[in-house]
Amino acid sequence: MPIIEDLKLSETSRLIIWEISETINELKTKVLLSENSLKLLNQRKSEVQKKQFLAIRNILSELSIDDRDMKYEESGRPYVIGGQNISLSHSDTFAAVILSDNVVGIDIEIMHDRILKIKDKFLETELNYPEKLEVATALIYWNIKESIFKAVPKEGLDFKKNILVLPLNMKKNTTKSWFIDNDEIYSFETHFKISKKYTLAFVIKN
């Protein structure tokens, strides 16, 4: 089974990362999909998208979540009926899910240097930090901001103006981050991981 990380973050928080190596049929036979999920699966056009969707469903099964209880708000934000807070992410052959009693967000990205070309679109204060902005660190800043975006259902959220991330602590793989919008301020426990193939971050609302 291609679970490459299964982390119990606390008594009420768990994170699973899945590296997709199976065929669509192999992924499909491992889970019982609801009628709605079958419809959503068929709407995915590419093989990669179908595999990502099914990998997420396999992770939900590992977390003992009935597929029928997995729903989406109009915004696309996932939730579990009568369950914990959940956040999902996938990129290429990787999928990740975090589940918690707290509000959470997660993002995973495969390694790519395109991120440096768009850094000015999502970074502002962070560009003034003394650390050199490399591919991995730029991706981590993106991961963190995307995670907060998923955790705070705020229409019109601006990655540059509404989300602040302090310099990365590369020894502890942690930092601090905030969502800021006038008098509305939320702080997040913030963690990240840099692998040879991907970067990942997750946030837990304080």
Layout of secondary structure:
Elements: E1 3-10, E2 13-19, H1 24-29, H2 35-43, H3 47-62, E3 70-72, E4 78-80, E5 85-91, E6 94-100, E7 104-110, H4 119-122, H5 135-151, E8 163-165, E9 174-181, E10 184-194, E11 198-205
Antiparallel strand pairs: 1-2, 2-6, 3-4, 5-6, 7-11, 8-9, 9-10, 10-11
Q: What's the N-to-C terminus distance?
A: 33 Å
Count the helices. How many? Answer: 5
Helix % is 25-40%
Mean pLDDT across residues: 96
Oligomer: single chain
Radius of gyration: 17 Å
**Rough shape?**
globular
H/E series: EEHHHEEEEEHHEEEE
Lateral arrangement of strands in the main beta sheet:
7-11-10-9-8
Largest sheet: 5 strands, antiparallel
The fraction of residues in strands falls at 25-35%
Describe the structure.
With 206 residues, the chain is of the alpha+beta class. Helix content is 25%, strand content 35%. It contains 5 helices and 11 strands. The strands form 3 sheets. Strands 7-11-10-9-8 form a 5-stranded antiparallel β-sheet, covered by helices on one side. Strands 1-2-6-5 form a 4-stranded antiparallel β-sheet, sandwiched between helices. Strand 1 and strand 2 form a beta hairpin. The protein starts with a strand and ends with a strand.
